[in-house]
Amino acid sequence: MALISGILIIILIPAYLRKRLLHPLDTVISTLEELSAGKTDIDIAYVQRDDEIGKLAQGVELLKKSFIKEQTLSRKLQDVIVKLEDLSIRDPLTGLYNRRYVMERLTELVAKYNKDMTILSIIICDIDYFKKVNDTYGHVCGDHVLKSIASLISGSCRKGDIPSRWGGEEFLIVLPDTDKYEAGTLAERIRVKLENEVLKCHDELNVTMTFGVSEYVEALDIQGSIHQADMALLQGKQQGRNRVTIH
Predict the structure, then answer these.
(1) Angle 66-68-71 (CA atoms, 0-180°, nearest 5)?
(2) Of the residues 7, 51, 70, 110, which has the maximum number of CB atoms within 10 A of its CB?
(3) 194 close to 149: Cβ distance less than 8 angstroms
(4) 125-175, pLDDT tens digit by residue?
């Protein structure tokens, strides 16, 4: 009888140890491996136990909470960084890209042009008689006009186009992979939209813009291409405004 009891003990104790100790340890180790891989949407087993396995599981639960907190803080920090980076490249009034950013992008695109022989065009546009709007209705109304036109320009641009506030009442749009005639078509579309738009600011306003278009060529640097678009804009103003002129 004693022999049988001894045999049963020899058989049952390892099974008991596997069920009570080794299997839970394997589970906890597996959970730790998942946590170390960045997976936090997991349940921690055995946290209710009041033995050493339970204490170990409770420690893993605390570690999981710490990981989640760290991930949350990291995401929040990343969100703040993204927002700050976006603010640094935007005009605060209109939300369009600012002059510094558009010059950086132009530099990149010209390097691509020189390497791959792609095409690139520039539109410069200016609000006609904007000083009169400011003088007549005040700067609050002037700001409203700027924001409304910026929204119209942004909504008219295609994916990949880079609309910016160039300064004052002037806007510049960079159009990658676009020749000057395609750019002129886009400029005309914006011009017509604005011409038919009624801006409400004290009174109903009809505002127009004049557009100058140029295409980047290797013989000119960035400033030279911008100057060409500017000269086309000036020509359009001299010819009566509210028109698109292609250099």
Answers:
(1) 110
(2) 110
(3) yes
(4) 999 999 999 999 999 999 999 999 999 999 999 999 999 999 999 999 999
- The length of the chain in residues reads 247
Q: What is the pTM of this model?
A: 0.73
Interatomic CA distance for residues 210 and 232, integer angstroms: 9
Going by DSSP bridges, is the β-strand pair 170-176/120-127 parallel, antiparallel, or unpaired? antiparallel
**Top-level class of domain 99-246:** alpha beta
SS3 166: strand
Q: How far is the C-alpha of 194 from the C-alpha of 94, rounded, in Å? A: 16
169 catalytic, yes or no? yes
Count other Cβ atoms within 10 Å, centred on residue 42: 12
Query: With contact defined as beta carbons under 8 Å apart, do 138 and 145 qualify?
Result: no
Nearest to 233 by CA among 219, 220, 218, 214: 214
243 in helix, strand or coil?
Answer: coil
